[in-house]
User: Fold these one by one.
Assistant:
Number 1:
Amino acid sequence: MLPTTLTHDFIKGLPKAELHLHLEGTLEPELKLALAERNRVDIGQTTIEEVKRSYQFDSLSSFLQVYYPAMNVLQREEDFYQLAMAYLHKAREHNIRYVELFFDPQAHTSRGVAFETVINGYHWAVRESGALGVETALVMCFLRDMSAQSAADTLEQALAHRDKILGVGLDSDENGNPPGKFREVFHKARQAGLHLTMHCDIDQHNSIGNIRQALLDIQVDRLDHGTNIVEDPELVAYVRDRGIGLTCCPVSNGFVGDMKGNEILQLLRAGVKVTVNSDDPAYFQSYVSDDMFALAQNYPMTPAEMVQLARNSFDASWLSDDRKAAYQQEITDYVAGY
Ligand code: HPA
Ligand code: ZN
């Protein structure tokens, strides 16, 4: 039965998918320090407190300035594997049954780590994830503040590993880097049979214009963040009618403004396949159940609406219809037995 009030326990046990999770954003301070020592990389901090104190950001760009330098500790295939496995243990704890894992190869190839090192390390974890009870897939993101040519070169490298990648995305600094910059590379990815998503971060310069471009021009299958879509009722109807998912991240949003809880609930109630995700859980110190609970604590919502968010997380995924139906049944069984 549905509980009368939403508890963290109910939310944690609810079967769910995570669709907006950057593997590089799961690097917890403990692992960061251990890898820094193992690979003899000076990250400027030597204690967990120092690492945590460096997590000061109030905008996307100030976040990215902390985020990218930390990746220097990732050097070898085992490092990428270990990072992903650490997250998958967390995922199991939060009853995340399926996750589409974002990763940023250019953040590593640009500092001399081979593409193969990155993809093989992450894929190693994907192969082992089933044994942990978490189904996984990899989604390769291009860095939008790098050139379109660099994205095209990265796609070329990825196509030699086509079987390891389910889709492509676009992240990093949106300012001055609209979706249209990557029209060709996304077109090529589509032709290769890859699913398409892209970040339309909150409250960007020309957010709604970028959302329109992503939907109508690039024809993405999903939007990451994208809550500014509420500014345009016609675009809201467009995503609702096509079942296009929005992967929202309330705690991450809260770091740079408000959680956008009103927008998330407005979209949910309008029938849009909106989902709740953790984005970069090690940096925002919030895994997906914590994000869902934070939403419920700060905005009035019902247990049935929380269950709908979990249902949307599978519906907006790139799983087969059979797998989606199996997970929907898990949700039905969980609620019936609660
Ligand atoms: N937006 C843009 N780039 C990112 C994000 C995000 O939410 N997380 C990690 N890289
Ligand atoms: Zn993100």
Number 2:
Amino acid sequence: MSNTIVSPSILSADFSEFGKAANDVDASGAKWLHMDVMDGSFVPNMTFGPPLVSAMRKKTKAFLDVHLMIIQPGRYIGEFAKAGADGITFHYEAEIHAQKYLDEIRGFGLKAGIAVVPSTPVSALEETLPFIDLALIMTVNPGFGGQKLIPECLEKVKKLVKIRESAGLDFKISVDGGVNESTAGSVKSAGADILVIGSAFFENSDKKGLVSRLQG
Ligand code: DX5
Ligand code: ZN
């Protein structure tokens, strides 16, 4: 039995039916729900903020895996914690004082995550790793769902697995972007613990089958 966690990304849901998306996630057997917050500055797209996290908190028991793609994310940690996030992940590239805000996230009793875009090396994270519960490796340039996974990014996952082992740490590694049934095998064998899946989840009519195959 694998410990792989599937985290469907609400970015690919029908935005006129968020309640249905929550039910679909719960019914699929997925234990996490990934929520992409975009500000139109850090990434060329905009989505939603704390009010939707708060609304989804009422609709699902899933672990709310909030992925902040916003500049200076430290400004909003408290808002997302109050809204009911279970984990907050922000970008290394977007925050000078990462350690301070990772500590703040943990101070709220939540899981703290750091994310990197494809062009940021995982070595940049080394001094931050003792303060995280989750490292999110983007395998597409963030902003939109439905893009093709950049296979070279999986080398970063493999490197991070080695760094984690040599440092004796136990954070989880999440892979986000272009994960589907064809790419999931290589993503898992690279060492991902969490698979974020947007379009491949919401476009699949057999979500339960998909989740059980990916968790297996
Ligand atoms: C992209 C987001 C992803 C996105 C993944 O910027 O961070 O979470 O929803 O979507 P797919 O799985 O379609 O690549
Ligand atoms: Zn994401």
